[in-house]
Amino acid sequence: MDSSVTIATVILSISLILSRILYVIYWSGRPLRNKSLGPVSTLIVLGSGGHTAEMLNVLSVLQKDLFSPRFYIAAATDNMSLQKARTYENQLADKNEAEVDKIAQFMQIYRSREVGQSYFTSVWTTLIATLHALWLMIKIRPQVILCNGPGTCIPLCLIAFIFKVLGIRWSSIFYVESIARVKRLSLSGLILYKLYVADQFFVQWPQLQRIYPRAHYVGCLM
Amino acid sequence: FTPVLQGVSGCIIKLGMGDSEVGGKLTRMVFVTVGTTSFDALVRAVDTEQVKQILYARGYTHLLIQMGRGTYNPTKSHGEDGLVVDYFSFSSSIADHLKSASLVISHAGSGSIFETLRLGKPLIVVVNEDLMDNHQIELAEELAERKHLYCARPQTLHQTIESLNLESIIPYTPGDAKPVAALINRFLGFPED
């Protein structure tokens, strides 16, 4: 008798969770009915080299007072990207550094696996990286996430999705596939597309849009 | 009016972007860049006599190589009977070198590619076949198909330089992020412009 109650409870909880996940996926792809039109806290995930240049291009055409405050995250091993973001923010604030601190924050995140690291040690580093990502996401709880490819965006976006399911924070995740991807998506892009984690998915080449019909073709950013 | 000068190889060379005349002597620099990577196969390829002779015959006078984390050091030369060759590992003034170059030979990183295309410089992208996940070939080949640049492998670089036809290059029109911004704004219920 007890066991059948347990089984019923388990089945009920699983179906409740599943229906909540389906509900989140259904509403994730749909435009917000944003009536307040107030500024949204924005998390920007940066990656090395070309990724950062593309992301700063996107930022340069967004209205800065609507996407505010801004949180920049880059891998702990990547020194260049945050530097570039800081330079960009300083230019916006016209070199008023006190002003920059109010509207922009720069953070580093541990990577789950460095190039060439063994799979055994990467179990631990993945755990640490995930906990670190969770900690950052609890602190930031962004309303908007902008990312374009570096692997560091995966744990952050998955946590954001879980926050949506749990009702902690509803965030809109925008993913712009890198211009370097012409025929195939990157692994990060593929994961976020297939799992319906990205609210809007942008590609820069028409070939990709034909293979991934839910993506929006937006032309070259560079 | 396009200034026309007698080139070193005897052929007539039109002064293009990046060419500069110092004390009556024409400088036409080839800038080779591997970015933050190591790409010794490319540095070795441009350091061969074959490639250097073709470059010299085509009227280039200087060869400057940015070799990144590579370990192969090319042979320096003061240009007694050929190209002036120099190299360095990293520099904060890559943009200046790109601006003063008449021809750029680059690795397939999207940063280098678009920086060069925006400057309107003739560009040969050399694909690094030793990279494991070499998706960069896709971008170089796509842009080569659209005639914005030439695409080569280290071992075919000399043929590419030999058959280089600067007239056939279609200038790249820089893209912009406005369509992305408009979609993001529409999604969030913000004004679209």
Automatic annotation (TrEMBL), chain A:
Which cellular component appears as one GO term in the record? Answer: UDP-N-acetylglucosamine transferase complex
The protein's predominant localisation is endoplasmic reticulum
A single Pfam family, by name? Alg14
User: Where would you find this protein in the cell?
Assistant: Endoplasmic reticulum membrane
Does the UniProt entry include the keyword Transmembrane helix? yes
Q: What does the record say about its membrane topology?
A: Single-pass membrane protein
Note the superkingdom of the native organism.
Eukaryota
- GO terms under biological process: dolichol-linked oligosaccharide biosynthetic process
Annotated transmembrane regions: 6-26, 119-138, 158-176
Q: Does the keyword Transmembrane helix apply?
A: yes
- Provide this UniProt record's keywords sorted from A to Z: Endoplasmic reticulum, Membrane, Transmembrane, Transmembrane helix
Family of the protein in this entry: Belongs to the ALG14 family.
For this entry, the protein name equals: UDP-N-acetylglucosamine transferase subunit ALG14
Q: Which organism is it from?
A: Cucumis sativus (Cucumber)
